[in-house]
Hints:
Radius of gyration: 20 Å
Strand content: 15-25%
CATH class of the largest domain: Alpha Beta
Number of domains: 2
CATH architecture of the largest domain: 3-Layer(aba) Sandwich
CATH topology of the largest domain: Cytidine Deaminase, domain 2
Low-confidence stretches: 1-8
Domain LpxI C-terminal: 147-281
Order of helices and strands: EHEEHEHHHEHEHEEHEEHEEHE
Shape: elongated
Protein name: LpxI family protein
Strand order of the largest sheet: 6-13-11-9-7-8
CATH superfamily of the largest domain: LpxI C-terminal catalytic domain
Mean pLDDT: 88
Number of strands: 13
Largest sheet: 6 strands, mixed
InterPro entries: LpxI (IPR053174), LpxI_C (IPR010415), LpxI_C_sf (IPR043167), LpxI_N (IPR041255)
Oligomer: single chain
Domain LpxI N-terminal: 11-142
Organism: Rhizobium leguminosarum
Amino acid sequence: MALSGDTAAGRLAIIAGGGLLPSYVAEAARAAGENPVIVALKDESDRRWEDYDHAVIGIGDFAALDGLLSRYGVGRVVMSGSVARRPEWREVRPTLRILMKVPAAIRTLLSGGDDTVLQMVIRLIEGNGRRVVGAHEIAPDLLASVGPLGATTPSEEDRRDIRRAAEAADMLGRLDVGQGAISIGGRVVALEGLEGTDEMLDRVAGLRAAGRISPRRRGALVKLCKPQQDIRADLPAIGVSTILNAKKAGLGGIAVEAGRSLVLDRPAVIKAADEAGLFVCGIDRGLPAWGLE
Length: 293
C-alpha cells in the first residue's frame, strides 16, 4: 500500500534498525500524510515492511543507500532503531564523496564512540543536500514529559536513587559510552555499556539473586540523552520490555529525560508499570533536583 503525496521537502526515508521504534515512526509518518520509504538494515531490522516501499541494505553500504535515496527522491532521512554491531571494513561500500574523506570517515565508522559515529553518518547523509531529522520530529507524541506517567510516584528514597543514577548517567554520556545507570540505596550498581539496557537490568537481577544487593532496597534506572548528543539520532527509549525487566531486577521504577527520551507504546508502558507498582517519570537536567521536588 502506498500513499500518493510527498512533501515539497522531498520524500521521507526511514533507516530502520532493530526494535519497535521504526514501526512507530513509520505509522506516525503515514498518519501525517507522508509516504515513507523504509531502508531496512540487513541483519538488524526485525519488522515486516511489505506495506511500504522498502529495500534491505547492508549497514555499511553507503553507495547502495545513496542510490536508493536518489531513486526515490528522498529529501529527509530519519535514523531509528537499534544497531547491534559495527560493520567490518569489508562491508563498508563508500561513495566517491566518502572515499575523498578516507581514512578519517572509515576509521570513525569502524572504531569511534557511538555518538561520534552517528554524527559522522549524519554528515555523510547530509552531504548530498538531504536533511536528517529526528524520530521525535516525525512522532512527537513519543517524547517523555516532566513528571509521573502512571499512577505510581517515586518515594523520597526513590528520588535519591534517581538523582544518584542521573549523575552517573550524565558522566557516562559525556564519555560517549552509554545512556543509562542504576542506583540502589544511593549506590550506583550498574552502568550501561555496549550490551544495552535490558542486558544491564538482567545483570542487576543476577546480582540481586546472588545476594549482592539487599532485597530491602528498590532502586531506580535512569536513562539520559548524552549531553553532547545530536538528538536527531539514538534518543534514549523505553518500552514494555524495559518495565518488565526493571521489575525482574527488583527496581522501584524508571526515570527518563523529558523532551529528549522516547516512550514507546505509552498506554502499554503505563499499564505495565501500574500493574507492577513501578513508577515511570520524566526528569529535566535543567531544573533544580532534576524536577523531582
